[in-house]
Amino acid sequence: MNYFLNESVFTLNSGTEFSAIKRLQLFKKNGQPAKILTRNYNSNSAADIERVGLESSDVLNMYDYFQEVTDQPRVNADVRYIDVFDKNLYHIEAVDANESMIKFHGRVIAKVSIAPATVGLVGTIDWYNDNKVVVARDVWDRRGFKSSTQYYHPDGSLGPQVFFNAQGQPKIELTHMNINGVLAPTSWKLLDYSDKVLRFNTEEDLFAFFASELAAKEPSSFICDRPTLTSAMLKIENAAGKWQFLHNTHAADNRQAGASRKLVPYLEPLFNNWVDQIDGLIVPTNQQREEILRYYKFKRVLVLPDTYAENVENASVQLSQAREQTIICLGMISANKGSVEAVDILARVREKMPNVKLEFYGYASPMDYRQAIEKRAEALNSKEFVTFPGYKSEHELAKILEKGGVLLSTSEGEAFGMGILKGMSYGLPVVAYKVKYGLTEMIKNGKDGNLVPFRSEQAAAEAILKILSNPEIQAAYSKAAYERAQYFNAERAWQLWEEAGQQVNNLLVKA
Fold first, then answer.
1. What is the pLDDT of residues 25-74, one digit of tens each?
2. So where are the chain's domains?
3. Other beta carbons within 10 Å of 183
4. How much is the pTM?
5. For the domain 91-196, what is the CATH code?
6. Sheet holding 2-6, edge to edge
């Protein structure tokens, strides 16, 4: 089995998760065994997995595995019908669409919070003591059973958390302790695993044990998508292969000509301490591979696709449609993506095209970063022209990209650029800073988009104006963008994976 290590499939996924999802779909399409292996506890995982177009069997979660619910059918647990409360003794009083209070002779004994994006389904149940203090919180899995209970001390601090199987039997216990004034998780205990009680000091150790158990059952290769899980991967026993996929640039200064020895801090352990403990790195471009090999002696550095182009239906019809006067920023909204600079560029464009709008599709990281963008937009008298439609489903996003005017990237560096390729798949012309690595490989300057010097806001604005103000140029760029995207299609992506698997015997486990 080929396992792709990740933290979770989230409600709001980043490019890292989407890369693993698309790789999994590529493997399945070509008849090769693969699963995403996740560490984090997520009571909403069933809904999140379905939302991204996967089947429940495509993702194997550590907590699900030890809770014995990997094949659990999905049942709706409506607050009105669950048997937690005796309806003859307790009264359920709806406060609003998001919560209900449980009362006994007029006294509130519990509060039910409705699961997100559902109508009346149980998310959590908070239990109160006589002093109206929460003493325990039941977390209900989206599949319709009580999955865990978090207990609280009288002062409100975290007590133990117990995880159950679908029949209510405890399977995992998580303990917190006060260490130097900070409450921290200190013990994960499997309460009944193969008739044994097993204790682990960290979640990382439990995850390594989980993966090792899987590897003991069948030949297994592991590709780690999250650097936060690399140290856990090192501890996996019986692995056929251990590989780290880098989805981001590795250097702290992406504008330095040639290679750089200065690493982003979170990659320092991997590059400085663990080089000999993994079978190699996987990166999306040859340029990044060459720069890494200049200073670091990994066993291997492979170049394999981070993503592949969408197979857009009726592309010829869509390409002929008139596009809107909109600038689209797709992906995470953050400082290293230069999101505030996009507002400055918009202001310059509006000097000649005053009705152009800037739309951010994605989520802000950190969450309050959006405020910085709004403040800058207000200072430039562009607030009403900057919108945040938010995180969209694949279907919703497709409609947006079909009509968008131009895709803008102000990122300080991209290992590849999943959002850029996605936009080009729908014929969306691109204006981007010329930074390492993938954008220079994807975009043919002056044909399907424009690459401008880093932080040259005026040059970016002029490139956008050239595209949006001239329908013929926009149509030509759109057609070229779609055609260029097809070079990075699924067939080519699989060919590269297959060739690498033939050359490196421990990269993949084949069917």
1. 999 999 999 999 999 999 999 999 999 999 999 999 999 999 999 999 99
2. 2-70+204-303, 91-196, 315-488
3. 13
4. 0.93
5. 2.40.128
6. 59-61, 34-38, 2-6, 221-224, 241-245, 280-283, 301-303
